[in-house]
Automatic annotation (TrEMBL), chains A, B:
The keyword DNA-binding does not apply. The keyword Cell division does not apply. Residues 57-387 form the Aminotransferase class I/classII large domain. Pfam families: Aminotran_1_2 (PF00155). Belongs to the class-I pyridoxal-phosphate-dependent aminotransferase family. One of its GO terms (molecular function) is pyridoxal phosphate binding. Homodimer. This is Aminotransferase class I/classII large domain-containing protein. It comes from the Bacteria. InterPro entries: Aminotransferase_I/II_large (IPR004839), Class-I_PLP-dep_aminotransf (IPR050859), PyrdxlP-dep_Trfase (IPR015424), PyrdxlP-dep_Trfase_major (IPR015421), PyrdxlP-dep_Trfase_small (IPR015422). Its cofactor is pyridoxal 5'-phosphate. The lineage of its organism: Bacteria, Pseudomonadati, Pseudomonadota, Alphaproteobacteria, Rhodobacterales.
């Protein structure tokens, strides 16, 4: 049978993410592909105790249904974390989500009619494009340099795109490039959003994993007109398997996202919300994050050192101040997708994410995203060395 | 600030479900409102052991990211459960969802362009209407009698609605009426779906909680052309707090729902999928369900007995063969919403769901849905008695 689908499905197609997650599961491949945190650093003992206590608690509340917008105590705790980071808010300003990915879907569904324009960094997070696609947006893109989205180019883009409705950004240690939006540009972004009546979607999964440099204020904390939807997540700082993220937004926006939450899946898992909440009550999340920072900073150094040692000199890599990724630039003629398929996977037994997939409009073939958080230091060295050999042997790519 | 929202948000409005979940949380109210299972019957000890074992398992896989369409072993296990129930399928035919609610959202997004028609039972599950609304459907409705959706009326409705795309049904112990679709009507429904090129969305959260009568084949097992999307859930037979549901559908439909899963929230919680999977490996779900059946059958009897004893004789209640709900019919002039607001809540301290909310097109005020699974037998007796007194004292309503 062939069925007739809704128009919104026209551009909803299989993506590289699914295939790459599958490749990452082959234990004979060293994958720098996914955005996985290091599983050896998961707070296993604490979560074990916590799940025991919430499941055994009288009344069974952690196993029952819960309010759609999230457990009230968890919402308060998230507001405290946000406020301690300079983004003042209360539990009423928090909507608990099924990972921050769900916030990307909701923001697009809430704001985008078919043909409306979403402005993204170029390149940008592939998962966001996947989330936006069923809302049938068009895209306008802003190039990224070492200080993030080039907001000085934004005004011309906004003038040329009267249907622009939403600016999507990962301001801290951006996915895929690892760069951070400077303070001057953060302020300029807010100023332009006000002037052009746009909503800003601020996605911050890596924000707290900073290795060096100074913490910068969130866009939400600089928001003067309630135009910023801030998305946060425990996936990278606690464990991804909980699937707990959140949105912070002004009441009007948050209420509508809350209605989409009821429609989309009723609620996030009560057990997982209760577990995250008890973790925050009982343990020091900052101390746990400090451990992650140290470990990932070391891994980043190991990867960049190995790249410098093993890769041809024409290949450059960003040196991020935090997060999970470095972004590689190969010579103009290099096709990172073809190289992965024909050489890296079958010969070097190494995976990464070819860069082309992160460009919403005009793919550029000579980039790749490398994750340094998931693999051990030994695997990083082995994988990069193997890839270096293959690159030297295939310079013509 | 007031913002401009996408057109799909026009009819996305706060619903009774949110308010009622809030009321149910007030411990001084006896709520027959929500569709909560009995928390005293949750498999607390088993889940405690299971979470301990999956969190402590070497490698931390249960806390890490997992494939978007679900853990492969869980998909196989669900296929085995389905096959044992007469719906033959393999793990490849299964998509794990964030509760079956997510399947309602995905089916509408996949199939419904604005103005396309969804055919529902009248009355129907409110949560489905909430899920469908952002896809901007119109509705056509089929009355329900003691044998479920009156499929003999369906052909005329299909002829009158050329844009009909989807038939939504809860065939077993329907929400809100508790009635079950007869075998003759199941076959007629499939036959008409084939003839009119429709997709059937079969929602079965209560299917395994049968008190009496004979198990009937799922619509999916009667599906001759791959037109049925079957939704199942562990919420009522295990615990709601896991938020694990699933879809079974033909490859083309399932693949597209899988793409929406990646877009919507990346994946269901790994921890919760791993927990459900280990429960199925280690314990006898059928034995657990047998306990639930006995308990809920007794509670149903307690509620119907109490209604017969305490309510005015003009009020009738359905006697369901399974599930969680009975459906009350009051005299034509009675307004169950007004009575709840003005008498039941403030005086009798009892909540239910006024029936008007379950009718997609023309609300009828003289109905109410009563849940008998959540409250203790003592509370059922106390609550129904208090409501009976209030009804007798307010016959003019």
């Amino acid at each position: 049978m062939t069925f007739r689908y809704a128009q919104r499905m026209a551009k909803v197609r299989p993506s590289a993410i699914g295939e790459l997650l599958a490749l990452g599961a082959d234990p004979s491949i060293i994958s720098f592909g996914g955005g996985y945190p290091d599983a050896t650093l998961f707070p296993q003992e604490q979560l074990d105790t916590i799940f025991h206590d919430i499941i055994r608690a009288p009344g069974g509340a952690a196993m029952q249904y819960a309010p759609s917008n999230g457990l009230p105590h968890l919402r308060e705790q998230i507001a405290q974390l946000m406020s301690a980071d300079g983004t003042l808010c209360t539990g009423d300003d928090v909507l608990v989500l099924q990972g921050s990915q769900q916030g990307l879907d909701f923001a697009a569904r809430m704001l985008i009619d078919p043909g409306d324009v979403i402005i993204t960094e170029d390149p940008t997070f592939l998962g966001a494009l996947i989330a936006f696609e069923p809302s049938q947006p068009k895209y306008a893109v802003v190039p990224v340099d070492s200080e993030g989205m080039q907001t000085e180019r934004l005004e011309a883009i906004l003038s040329a795109n009267p249907r622009a409705r939403l600016i999507y950004t990962v301001p801290d240690f951006q996915n895929p490039t690892g760069v951070t939006l400077s303070l001057v540009r953060r302020k300029q972004l807010i100023e332009l959003a006000n002037r052009y009546d746009l909503i800003v979607l601020e996605d911050t999964p890596y924000r707290h994993i900073r290795f060096s440099g100074q913490n910068l204020p969130t866009l939400k904390s600089l928001d003067t007109e309630g135009r910023v939807i801030h998305l946060g997540s425990f996936s990278k700082v606690l464990v991804p398997g909980l699937r707990i993220g959140w949105a912070i937004a002004s009441p009007d926006l948050l209420a509508r996202m809350g209605l989409l939450k009821v429609a989309a899946d009723t609620q996030t898992s009560t057990l997982n919300m209760a577990a995250a909440s008890l973790f925050l009550d009982r343990y020091d999340l900052s101390a746990h994050i400090a451990t992650l920072r140290t470990a990932y900073a070391t891994k980043k150094e190991v990867m960049l050192d190995a790249i410098r040692q093993h890769f041809p000199q024409e290949i450059s890599a960003t040196d991020p101040e935090g997060g999970l990724f470095t972004w590689l630039t190969f010579p103009e003629s290099f096709d990172a997708t073809a190289f992965m398929r024909e050489v890296a996977l079958p010969q070097a037994r190494v995976a990464y994410v070819p860069g082309a997939t992160f460009f919403p409009l005009t793919p550029r073939a000579n980039h790749a995203r490398f994750n340094f958080s998931a693999q051990s230091e030994a695997n990083i060295q082995t994988g990069i060395a193997a890839l270096g050999l293959a690159l030297h042997a295939n310079l013509s790519f």
